[in-house]
Design brief:
By secondary structure, the protein is an alpha/beta fold. Helices cover 48% and strands 15% of the residues. A six-stranded mixed beta sheet has the order 1-2-3-4-6-9, sandwiched between helices. Strands 5-7-8 form a three-stranded mixed beta sheet. The relative contact order is 0.11.
Length: 263
């Protein structure tokens, strides 16, 4: 086993883009309690960081994330208290990603299984190497992927989600794109270029507008159609009062680049 090098989650920020890298490749970047705590802390910091417009979630090594740390779980098999705390903590982190006022892009190379697949599904966008694989294989070891199911079923259709959950089989990156689990698949040599081109494109937008839009997107998804339109009409009207909306409209009509104030 290789020795742990550096923090469990590495953080690098540049030009409005913050990259969080899961950094325990010798444990297949599993979501141990320690990893979840580190990821939660990093996300909490980013939530109030005005310099960050976009987040890229990456992983060191050949595996994106293999889900929960089964060795840690085995050591706590008789502790219902630990098990409940672990799955609750994981659920909190997934919701942190969804509720984060910045778009999050998953950069997926290698395998993403169980809670690792949940992590990809929880991100707003996902770009995968063509060699990536995805699965919710808990059923194979007698532990149904019930919490990963929440994020998965909100990304893909019911029948496709159930197929993944009931069979536990790995699917290819191509299949994941077909199902809507990832946005794009590229040759692994082009993964960083594709991810950061997308990130830079988003980072050029108004941070205030991105925050409004992401929050409204997830809120309206849970509403009936008429309620969703009523809610988003109010959001747009409120958005129009923002400095950046006024600047953006004037810049477009004046044929110039907008100067965002993030307000």
């Amino acid at each position: 086993m290789t020795e742990q090098s550096g923090p469990l989650v590495q953080k690098h920020s540049e030009n409005g883009i913050t990259t969080l890298t899961l950094n325990q490749p010798d444990r297949r970047n599993s979501l141990s309690m320690g990893m979840l705590d580190a990821l939660a802390d990093a996300l909490a910091d980013i939530a109030t960081d005005d310099a960050t417009r976009v987040v890229v979630l990456a992983a060191a090594g050949k595996v994106f994330c293999a889900g929960h740390d089964l060795k840690e779980i085995r050591d706590q098999l008789d502790s219902h208290e630990f098990q409940l705390a672990l799955f609750n903590r994981c659920s909190e982190v997934m919701q942190q990603i969804v509720n984060l006022p910045k778009p999050v892009i998953a950069r997926v190379a290698g395998v993403a299984t169980a809670a690792g697949c949940q992590l990809v599904a929880s991100c707003d966008l996902a770009v995968a190497a063509d060699s990536a694989r995805f699965a919710t294989p808990g059923v194979n070891i007698g532990l149904f992927c019930s919490t990963p199911m929440v994020a998965l079923s909100r990304n893909v259709s019911r029948k496709h989600a159930m197929e993944m959950l009931l069979t536990g089989e790995l699917i290819s990156a191509v299949r994941a794109e077909q199902l809507g689990l990832v946005n794009r698949i590229v040759d692994e040599s082009l993964l960083d270029e594709t991810v950061y081109t997308m990130a830079r494109t988003i980072a050029e937008k108004s941070g205030h507008t991105l925050k409004i839009g992401k929050g409204a997107f997830y809120k309206q998804l849970e509403m009936p159609l008429a309620d969703a339109y009523e809610y988003t009409a109010k959001v747009m009207a409120e958005n129009m009062r923002a400095d950046d909306a006024r600047e953006g409209i004037c810049a477009f009509l004046d044929k110039r680049k907008p100067e965002w104030k993030d307000s």
